[in-house]
Amino acid sequence: MAKSDNRKRGEKSEPPRWSNEVVGIVLICVGLLCFLSVISFTPKDLNDIGFLRDFATERAVGEERHNFIGGVGAVLGFIQVALFGAAGYIVPVALIWFGVVKLVFDGRLWPRTMVGFIILILSGAAFMHALRGGTGVDWSKHAGGLTGWLLGNHIFLPLLNRIGSLLLLGAAYLVGLILLTGQPPVKFIKGVHALILEAMANHRERKEEGRVAAEKEEIRNNERERERERRRKEREAKSAAAVPTPEPQGQQELPLRETPAPQIFDASQRKIDAPKPGDKPFERKQKGEGHLSLSTAGFEDYELPGFDLLDPDTGEEAPEANRDELLATQRTIVETLRAFGIEVTPGDITRGPTITRYEIYPSTGLRVSRIAQLEADIARATCAERINILAPIPGKDTVGIELANSQKVSVPLRELLQDPEFRSAKKKIPLALGKDVYGKTVIGDLAAMPHLLVAGATGSGKSVCINSIIASMLFKFGPDELRFIMVDPKVVEMQMYNKLPHLVVPVVTDPKKVVAALKWVVNEMEKRYRVFAKTGVRNFDSFNHRVRPEKPEVAAEEEEAPPPWNADEEVDMDAIESIAAALESGELGAEAEEEELPIEEEKIPDRYPYIVVLIDELADLMQTAPADVEMCIARIAQKARAAGIHLIIATQTPRADVVTGIIKANIPCRIAFQVSSQLDSRVILDTKGAEKLVGKGDMLYLPPGSAKLERSQGAFVSDEEVERLVDHCAAQAEPNFESDIVRSIDSGGEDGDDEEEISPADEDLIMKCIEVARQEQKCSTSLLQRRLRLGYTRAARMVDILEARGVVGPGDGAKPREVYLK
Ligand SMILES: Nc1ncnc2c1ncn2[C@@H]1O[C@H](COP(=O)(O)OP(=O)(O)OP(=O)(O)O)[C@@H](O)[C@H]1O
C-alpha cells in the first residue's frame, strides 16, 4: 500500500543495499570474464565455432585452445574485438568499474559515468581505425573493429582527415575518461604516482628500522656479554681472595672494571664539634690599628657576636642512613628502568640533609633524555613524594635521581659559621647559605656576587634564608664596617632589626618612600665614585686600604672629632643637605651636571662602610612605582659593586612583571626556593628545576659566574636566635639614624610636586627630549638646546626631569649623560 502511494507521488524508492551488492558482484564477475576472454582471444580459437569459422585463422594440428574461458570466452572475445577492436578492452574494464561503484560507493551509476563510457569506447574505436588506416573493416585485435570503421571511415576521416581525426578523437577519449572516473587524468596519474612513491618509501623505512633494531640488539648483546664477563671475573677475584692459592707467575690479571664500585655516603651527619664557650667566628680588628682608627673610634668597644648567641647543639644526631633501604630503592630504580628497556649500572648513593641522590651509569649508546622521560614511572615505583632527575649530573658522567628523604635534617647556622670556608679571608662578605647534597657547605661571598635575588613561594624558606644572610654579616661586621638599608613593605618581616645600630635609616615600610631611599643609595654611590676619582683609587677596597698621606693638622682635628660614623656623615653633610633639598624639590642629583661638584670642599672620609640594601618583597614595590624602582635597581646593580654597595632582593612573586628582564640582567646571582610552576622557576633561574624542590629550605643556588645550579638545604636560624643576636648588637650601640637622610626619604615619599608642576605643554616637550636622548644615546643640556632650540634654563630643567624619571643617568662633569632607555 505504502509502496503504491510512493509511486503515485512519483517518488523513487532507494534500491535496497543488498540489491546493489548483488548487481555489483555480477558486474565485476561478468567484467572479469570479458576481460580474460579478450586478453586471451586469438582468431585461431574460432576454428571450433562453426558460425564464426570464416573469421578464424589457421591453427596447427593438435594445437590447444588458447582462450582462458574456453569456447564461450572465444565468442565473447570475438564480439568485443569485432565490435570495438583494441577499444574492446574498455568494455570489461568499465564493467568492473561499475561493479566497484555499486559495491563500494553509493551504489548509483550516474548518467555522467554512462555518458563517459560511451564516449570513451566510441572515440577509442574510431581513433584506432584512424591510426591504422585502410578503407575496409579490420577485424584484428589492434584495430577499431566495426564501430571504428563505421565512425572513422564514414564520418571522421572524410571530414577531418587523419591528423584532425586523431586530435579530436584523442581529446574525446580523455573527456570520456574524466567523465567515467570523475578524476582528471593528470591528477589521477599524479595520485597513482604519489601512492607508488609512498609505498616505496614505507618499504625503505621498514628495511632501515629492521637494520637499526638489529644493530641495537647487537649492542645490547655485546653489553650483556661484557657485563657477564665482568661479573665472572669479579667472582673469580673474590674466590681467589677467599681461598689463598699460589700466586701465578708474572703479572696478575685484574678484573676489568667499567664503572667504579658503588658506595654509600651519608652527608646528612654533622661533623663539627661544639665551639668552646666565648668562641667567635671573627675577632674584631684591634683598635688603634693604623689608619683605620678614625672610623673605628666610636665603636672601639664594639664586640662581634659569638657562637653562644646561637642555640647549642641539642646533641640530637640525625638518624643514620639505613643502608638496606637505600640499596632497595636503588634496585627499584634500576629494575624500573630495565623494565622500560633501559640498561643502567648502579652508581654511588649520597644521602644529603633533605634529599638522597642515586647515581646511575647509562649503558653506552643510551640517550640520557630517555631516563628523564621516565620520571613519573620512577616516582611511582619508588613511591617518592617528589623526584628530580639530573640527566646528567653537571660535571659528572652519571645520571642523578634525587628523591626527598622521609626524615629531613636541618642545617643549623652555627654549623656553617664554624666552617673554615666561612672564616676564610678570601670571602670579603661571607654568607652562610646552606649545605649541599654531598655535605659540603655552601658559603657565598656578597662582594663577589655582587647582588643577590632570592625568590620562592610563600612558606618555602625565604625569610629564614634572609635572616641567615643578615646574621652572617652581623657576625663579621660592626656598624662602622657595614650598614644596612632594609626595605620591608610587608611590615612584619624585618621589624626585629629596627634596633640594629647597623641601620642607616629605620626599616622602610612605606613603598612610596622606597624610591627616595634607593635614590639616596644612587647618590651615595655617585659620591663615592667622585671621591675615589679624587683620591686616585679604583674601588672600595683600594680606597679603604690606601696609604693615607701624612697630615699632622688633620690628625690634630681627629683628636676632637666626634664618633666616626658621625664624622663621616659630618664630612658628607653638604652633600646630604643637597640631597635632602633635592628630594624635597624632586630634583635629586640634578645639580651634578651643571655645576662642577665641589669635590675640593668635600672632605674625604677615612674609610667607607659597605652598604647592603635588603628588599623583602619586590612585588609590592613594583606595584607602586615600577619604572622608578626598576631603574634605580638597575643603576645600583650596574655600578655599585666597586663602591661597596650591594643589593639583596627577595620576592615571593616570581612573575615576569615583578622580576623583570632589566632586574634579572643586572642580578646574575640567584637563589630559588620551591615554586609552584616551571614557569616561575624559569623567571628566577632561566631554567626549570625549582618546582621540584621540597620546600622548607630546599634551594637551588646559582653562584656568580657559573651556569651550574647547586641544590642545597638552606641554613636554619630561629627567630629567637636572631633576636638574641640583634639584642647583642643593640646593647652596644644605639641606632644612629641620620636624621637628614630620614627626612629626605620621608619627603621623597610624600613628594609629588615635581609632577604637578609639569604642564601638558611641558609633557610634550619631555616626550621630544626623550626621543632625542633615545636617538642620540647621550644627553646634555647643550644637546637639547641645539636640537630643540630651547633656552639654557628650559633645557637644563628638561635634563633634570629626565634624570628624575630615570631616563638618563646622573651628570659626570662635562661628559654627556648616559641614556638608560635603549
Ligand atoms: N633552612 C630551613 N631549614 C629547616 N626548616 C626551614 C628552613 N627554612 C624554612 N624552614 C621552615 O619553613 C617555614 C617557613 O619558612 P619561611 O618563613 O622562611 O618561609 P617564607 O618563604 O619566608 O614564607 P613567607 O613568604 O610567607 O614569609 C619555617 O617556619 C620553618 O619551619
TrEMBL record:
Its main location: membrane. It comes from the Bacteria. The keyword Cell membrane applies. Keywords: ATP-binding, Cell cycle, Cell division, Cell membrane, Chromosome partition, DNA-binding, Membrane, Nucleotide-binding, Transmembrane, Transmembrane helix. Residues 439-682 form the FtsK domain. It is found in: Cell membrane. The chain crosses the membrane at residues 21-42, 68-101, 113-131, 159-180. It is a multi-pass membrane protein. Residues 206-238, 268-290 have a biased composition (Basic and acidic residues). ATP binds at residues 456-463. Residues 206-290 are annotated as: Disordered. Belongs to the FtsK/SpoIIIE/SftA family. This is DNA translocase FtsK. It comes from Luteolibacter rhizosphaerae.
